[in-house]
């Protein structure tokens, strides 16, 4: 039996420190909800998680871009519906102006309304969405994923010759009304094609938005497996380490008391 070196106490202290460290780690995981509280816990898992977090952040940005593009298209369609109503009325006025029982004064009144509707259409062609022109005809490239790939959103040009010609017609004469009717019918046909393009844009953007939403969910699920703590399992570990700390403390006290038996040899 020795006094200077108490191997039993040293071993008990080492095991107690290990159990205390494990208990602290378990407590940190339960309180934070994360199973990686330090890079040492899972260095490879942490690296993967960081890349997944960055990718999900980029996807969030792409989702915002797609949603804004959908709003842009919906705004376009709202204006296009009103322009369609205006052209429909202009076509009706073009036919009314061809009535042989109408006088020049009557046609002049029709022309006033026709001209007002044409001015409205010209005004709509200058509208914008957050400073971006709605109807300048430019193709807009919308970011659709985390790698900055894009979807080309077909532009609509309300200032093109088909629309401008119809809006500028004069129906104060029968011959003018005949020409106006032809021009307005062409404009309505062009408008139908343009509105179909808007619908196609919205549909495609909707698919991209759904794809991004699904990808976000899948990446989140993968990241959860790496970082989120399993509370049930960790609670069990915590209870185990807590018991080991308590028993280790008791055993250390017992080991420290062993040298006292030497006193019996000296008495």
Task: Based on the model shown, name its key terms.
mainly alpha, f41 fragment of flagellin, N-terminal domain, 2 domains, two-stranded antiparallel ribbon, rod-shaped
What would you note in describing this structure?
The structure is a single chain. With 267 residues, the chain is mainly alpha-helical. A two-stranded antiparallel ribbon has the order 1-2. A two-stranded antiparallel ribbon has the order 3-4. The protein has helices at 7-32, 43-96, 104-124, 161-167, 174-227, 231-257, 262-266, and strands at residues 128-129, 132-133, 140-143, 150-153. The protein folds into two domains: 7-33 and 229-266; 43-227, Up-down Bundle (f41 fragment of flagellin, N-terminal domain), CATH 1.20.1330. The chain has seven helices and four strands; from the N terminus they run H-H-H-E-E-E-E-H-H-H-H.
Number of strands: 4
Query: What's the alpha carbon Rg, rounded to whole Å?
Result: 39 Å
CATH evolutionary superfamily of the largest domain: f41 fragment of flagellin, N-terminal domain
Backbone shape: rod-shaped
Would you tell me the overall average pLDDT?
A: 89
CATH class of the largest domain: Mainly Alpha
* Total count of domains: 2
What share of the residues does DSSP label as strand, in percent?
under 5%
| Tally of individual helices | 7
**Residue share in helices?**
over 70%
Specify the oligomeric state: single chain
Span between termini? 16 Å
Q: What pattern of helices and strands is seen along the backbone?
A: HHHEEEEHHHH
CATH architecture of the largest domain: Up-down Bundle
């Amino acid at each position: 039996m020795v006094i200077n070196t108490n191997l039993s106490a040293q071993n008990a202290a080492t095991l107690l420190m290990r159990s205390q460290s494990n208990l602290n780690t378990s407590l940190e995981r339960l309180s934070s909800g994360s199973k990686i509280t330090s890079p040492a816990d899972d260095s490879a898992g942490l690296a993967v998680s960081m890349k997944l977090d960055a990718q999900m952040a980029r996807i969030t940005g792409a989702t915002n871009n797609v949603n804004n593009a959908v709003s842009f298209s919906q705004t376009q369609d709202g204006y296009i519906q009103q322009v369609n109503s205006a052209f429909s009325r202009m076509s009706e006025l073009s036919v009314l102006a061809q009535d042989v029982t109408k006088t020049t004064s009557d046609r002049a009144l029709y022309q006033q309304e026709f001209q007002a509707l044409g001015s409205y259409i010209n005004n709509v062609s200058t509208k914008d969405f957050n400073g971006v022109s709605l109807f300048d005809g430019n193709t807009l490239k919308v970011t659709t994923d985390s790698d900055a790939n894009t979807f080309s959103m077909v532009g609509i040009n309300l200032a093109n010759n088909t629309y401008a010609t119809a809006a500028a017609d004069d129906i104060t004469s029968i011959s003018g009304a005949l020409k106006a009717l032809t021009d307005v019918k062409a404009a309505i046909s062009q408008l139908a094609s343009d509105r179909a393009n808007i619908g196609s844009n919205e549909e495609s953007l909707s698919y991209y938005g759904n794809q991004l939403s699904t990808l976000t969910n899948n990446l989140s699920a993968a990241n959860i497996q790496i970082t989120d703590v399993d509370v049930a399992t960790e609670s069990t570990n915590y209870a185990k380490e807590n018991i080991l700390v308590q028993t280790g403390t008791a055993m250390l006290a017992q080991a420290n008391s062993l040298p006292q038996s030497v006193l019996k040899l000296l008495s």
